[in-house]
Design a protein that fits this description.
By secondary structure, the protein is mostly helical. It contains 6 helices and 2 strands; from the N terminus they run ααααβααβ. It has helices at residues 2-26, 37-101, 108-125, 129-142, 153-164, 175-183; strands spanning 150-151, 186-187.
């Protein structure tokens, strides 16, 4: 497709040059004509060159803004990858912390809820409704009595924030029930 456009552009340029040459040959500059055809041609060509230079400047500015957007997206993606790696490493570390000391500073209930809801959140981002349904079902099976669970207020807020970002909530079975149960969890 690009080759055809280049050929068409080249042939158009040749046609313009031939037209200009033929006009210059047919109407040479004569003082008694009163109207200078070569001056008009030079003026038209000057206008075309100015337009092309302006178009090139516009394209460069547009490319710069596109590059800035790509850099911004790349930085955001890199940040998210680093954050996910940090959360994963923190989770692994906390498992070993719990196994060694038999306690978790944030509480096992919080960890369970946070990672279950995080799994639901991330799975919903790529529209895997079947897996979302399985995650919600597993969470609901474990949160039978939400008033018996106590987590920090900031932890609960973080979990509710994740839940609010879940996509396709109308298609996920039991989502509203899960939201209600987590809302009933006690805070300390």
């Amino acid at each position: 497709m690009k080759k055809k456009e280049n050929w068409a552009l080249g042939l158009s340029g040749i046609a313009v040059v031939i037209s200009i040459v033929s006009i210059c040959v047919a109407y040479p500059h004569k003082a008694e004509l009163g109207f200078d055809y070569q001056g008009v041609l030079v003026g038209v060509l000057s206008l075309l060159v100015t337009t092309l230079i302006g178009w090139n400047i516009y394209t460069i500015i547009d490319i710069k803004s596109t590059r800035d957007k790509i850099d911004e997206i790349s930085t955001g993606a890199s940040f998210m990858v680093q954050k996910n790696m940090a959360v994963s490493e923190n989770t692994n570390w906390m498992i070993y912390h719990y196994l060694l000391l038999e306690k978790d500073p944030l509480g096992l209930e919080y960890r369970f809820l946070y990672h279950g809801v995080a799994c639901l959140f991330h799975t919903s981002q790529f529209s895997d409704i079947i897996t979302c349904n399985a995650v919600v079902k597993g969470l609901l099976e474990c949160i039978v009595n939400p008033k018996s669970i106590t987590i920090t207020k900031s932890g609960k807020d973080e979990i509710l924030k994740l839940l609010s970002g879940v996509k396709h909530t109308d298609k996920i079975e039991g989502y509203l029930e899960l939201l209600n149960r987590i809302a009933l969890v006690n805070v300390r």
